[in-house]
Design brief:
The radius of gyration is 14 Å and the shape is elongated. It has no helices and eleven strands. The strands form two sheets. Strands 2, 4, 5, 6, 9, 10 and 11 form a seven-stranded mixed beta sheet that branches. Strands 1-3-8-7 form a four-stranded antiparallel beta sheet, with no helix packed on it. The protein has about 120 residues and is an all-beta fold. The chain starts with a strand and ends with a strand. Strand 9 and strand 10 form a beta hairpin.
């Protein structure tokens, strides 16, 4: 019932910036946490950044993006963002949106993935 759709991926030169968006829709009673993950070719999917809505929007960042990326959320529009600055070739990956949701007040929990959006950073 819950869907996540990412957008904003593009080809960008090293040092450039991109902003990824993730729109959540469906029967969402409560959003507990959301995050951005990425997966490079031949690599495991890894956490980039997360935001815990139930903990006053507390954020967490992987060391390799700390100081360069910012995760944020538009609560009214139910959109998750990832602002990416000072991009490096090693940031090249498919970026996925993920969310933990409750669809009812009595606790139907769902973990949902988006389809991914491709980011390519050229040197």
């Amino acid at each position: 019932q819950v869907q996540l759709v990412e957008s904003g991926g593009a080809l960008v030169q090293a040092g450039g910036s991109l902003r990824l968006s993730c729109a959540a829709s469906g029967s969402i009673f409560k959003t507990n946490a959301m995050g951005w993950y990425r997966q490079a070719p031949g690599e495991q999917r890894e956490l980039v950044a997360s935001i815990t809505i139930t903990s006053n929007d507390m954020t967490h960042y992987a060391d390799f993006v700390k100081g360069r990326f910012t995760i944020s959320r538009d609560n009214a529009e139910n959109i998750l963002y990832l602002q990416m600055n000072s991009l490096k070739p090693e940031d090249t990956a498919v970026y996925y949106c993920n969310g933990d949701f409750e669809t009812t007040a009595w606790g139907d929990y769902h973990n949902v993935w988006g389809q991914g959006t491709l980011v390519i950073v050229s040197s």
